């Protein structure tokens, strides 16, 4: 027979649905210490009978608690408390932070919503009125329609003057551009050399392609040239993957001197570089692109999804001189071509001024969110910073503990190991500023600040 649960069944006071009130009552008792780690919760049916409610309500409450990292169900054994107590600050603000679905999600590096969903339908309607919808019986060229390629290159170059305006190939988001570039920038099986923490999507692409990943040391400007030198000596023929502007996850931006130094190392070792410039449109003061400094060696990748929203999975890749045919074959071999309807909508938005308005609005919105973050985490958000993610350096045990305690408070941060290549060189927690409504961002960051202070990391954030 199972040991009885120590918990006295109750609902928390309104407001909220029954399952929300039940989940809140259990969370309050975990927070107060009345329910300790390892305590068993009542079986679903027994609790439903005790509270005169349904088994479905109990199940939904337990699911809500599990998503918040407070409990875990074990098949055949029951549901057990695994969460830890939150800070008093977190306790006071938790109910204000938690959204109806149960979490405040700071884990995804998405831009704030700048285009409502109906704008996509309006763009399609405008294309239909003008007879410019793609022919459903034909594929566009693998690299995209020539006039749209030219328009996309010109638009990016207008906002990023050192970006290439010629030789642009359209792809289904920067992620496909990364896959194409990583596939072709070195012989099969050669490693990818990148910072010790980097964009998780690039790690996924490397794994798909069967390329090992080597992490090297970085500082406030990104990858260290001497660390790259050592890695290339140990791994000849590797390729280099870099996010030079607002590096994901650390937010570092390389100065011109660092860029030249890294390219010099690459040139001496005869290897190619993949430049992921997806965040550069947020930073009007970003230094010259790596591509402009060495177009014979650099694969340039940029994104329209970051500024224009996830409904528009469009990006560009510009291969080094002489590599266009191979890149087009790689696009053909993956998705044949960029999605025609999305490409047509992109052309509409580039032509009617929507893209221009959105980028101006996004920069203003980012500035507002950065100001909120700077007031709460000034040490993570220096003057002049323009990114929509923050990086809190922590060793692995503290990073994992902070992530668990944040989940217990209903806040999801990026899993600490997601961007990690070498945890001995860099480790921490990424905090994304774009996905929450602005009005709840400050409250959520305040709760997170309280949790960080409990970890004894005040010096890192103030």
Using brief descriptors, characterize the structure shown.
12% strand, alpha/beta, globular, Aspartate Aminotransferase, domain 2, seven-stranded mixed β-sheet, two-stranded antiparallel sheet, 3 domains, single chain, Aspartate Aminotransferase, domain 1, Arc Repressor Mutant, subunit A, 462 residues
Quick take:
The protein is of the alpha/beta class and 462 residues long.
Characterise this structure.
By secondary structure, the protein is an alpha/beta fold. The chain has three domains: 1-83, Winged helix-like DNA-binding domain superfamily/Winged helix DNA-binding domain (Arc Repressor Mutant, subunit A), CATH 1.10.10.10; 131-352, Type I PLP-dependent aspartate aminotransferase-like (Major domain) (Aspartate Aminotransferase, domain 2, 3-Layer(aba) Sandwich); 357-461, Alpha-Beta Complex (Aspartate Aminotransferase, domain 1), CATH 3.90.1150.10. It is 45% helix and 12% strand. The strands form five sheets. It has a seven-stranded mixed β-sheet with strand order 4-12-11-10-9-5-6, sandwiched between helices. A two-stranded antiparallel ribbon has the order 1-2. Strands 3-14 form a two-stranded parallel sheet. Helix 6 (146-159) packs across helix 14 (340-352). The chain starts with 17 loop residues before the first helix and ends with a helix. Residues 85-101 have low confidence and may be disordered. Residues 16-84 form the HTH gntR-type domain. InterPro entries: Aminotransferase_I/II_large (IPR004839), HTH_trans_reg/aminotransferase (IPR051446), PyrdxlP-dep_Trfase (IPR015424), PyrdxlP-dep_Trfase_major (IPR015421), Tscrpt_reg_HTH_GntR (IPR000524), WH-like_DNA-bd_sf (IPR036388), WH_DNA-bd_sf (IPR036390). This is Transcriptional regulator, GntR family. GO terms for molecular function: DNA binding; DNA-binding transcription factor activity; pyridoxal phosphate binding. Keywords: DNA-binding, Pyridoxal phosphate, Transcription, Transcription regulation.
């Amino acid at each position: 027979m199972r040991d009885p649960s120590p918990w006295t069944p109750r609902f928390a006071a309104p407001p909220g649905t029954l399952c929300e009130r039940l989940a809140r009552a259990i969370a309050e008792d975990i927070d107060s210490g009345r329910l300790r780690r390892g305590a068993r919760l009542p079986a679903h049916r027994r609790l439903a009978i005790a509270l005169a409610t349904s088994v479905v309500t109990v199940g939904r409450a337990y699911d809500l608690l599990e998503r918040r990292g407070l409990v875990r169900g074990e098949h055949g054994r029951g549901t057990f408390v695994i969460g830890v107590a939150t800070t008093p600050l977190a306790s006071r603000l938790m109910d204000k932070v938690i959204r109806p679905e149960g979490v405040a999600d700071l884990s995804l590096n998405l831009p704030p919503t700048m285009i409502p969903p109906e704008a996509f339908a309006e763009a399609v309607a405008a294309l239909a009125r003008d007879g410019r919808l793609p022919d459903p019986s034909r594929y566009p060229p693998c690299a995209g329609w020539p006039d749209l390629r030219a328009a996309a290159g010109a638009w990016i170059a207008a906002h990023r003057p050192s970006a290439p305006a010629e030789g642009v190939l359209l792809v289904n988001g920067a992620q496909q551009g990364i896959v194409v570039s990583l596939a072709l920038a070195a012989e099969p099986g050669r490693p990818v050399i990148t910072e010790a923490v980097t964009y998780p999507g690039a790690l996924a692409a490397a794994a798909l392609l069967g390329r090992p990943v080597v992490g090297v040391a970085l500082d406030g400007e990104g990858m260290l040239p001497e660390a790259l030198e050592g890695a290339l000596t140990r791994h000849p023929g590797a390729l280099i993957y870099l996010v030079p502007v607002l590096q994901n996850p650390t937010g570092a931006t390389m100065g011109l001197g660092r860029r030249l130094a890294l390219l010099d190392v690459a040139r001496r070792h005869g290897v190619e570089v993949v430049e992921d410039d997806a965040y550069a449109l947020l930073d009007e003061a970003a230094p010259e692109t790596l591509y402009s400094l060495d177009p014979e060696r650099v694969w340039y990748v940029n994104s329209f999804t970051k500024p224009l929203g996830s409904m528009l999975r469009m990006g560009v890749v510009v291969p080094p001189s002489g590599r266009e045919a191979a890149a087009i074959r790689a696009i053909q071999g993956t998705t044949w071509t960029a999605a025609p309807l999305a490409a047509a909508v992109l052309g509409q938005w580039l032509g009617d001024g929507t893209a221009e308005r959105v980028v101006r609005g996004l920069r203003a919105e980012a500035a507002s969110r950065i100001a909120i973050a700077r007031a709460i985490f000034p040490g993570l958000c220096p003057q002049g910073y323009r990114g929509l993610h923050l990086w809190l350096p922590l060793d692995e045990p503290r990073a994992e503990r902070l992530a668990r305690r944040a989940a217990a408070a209903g806040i999801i941060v990026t899993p600490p190991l997601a961007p990690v290549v070498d945890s001995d060189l860099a480790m921490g927690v990424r905090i994304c500023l774009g996905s929450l409504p602005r009005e709840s961002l400050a409250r959520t960051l305040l709760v997170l600040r309280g949790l960080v202070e409990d970890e004894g990391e005040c010096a890192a954030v103030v």
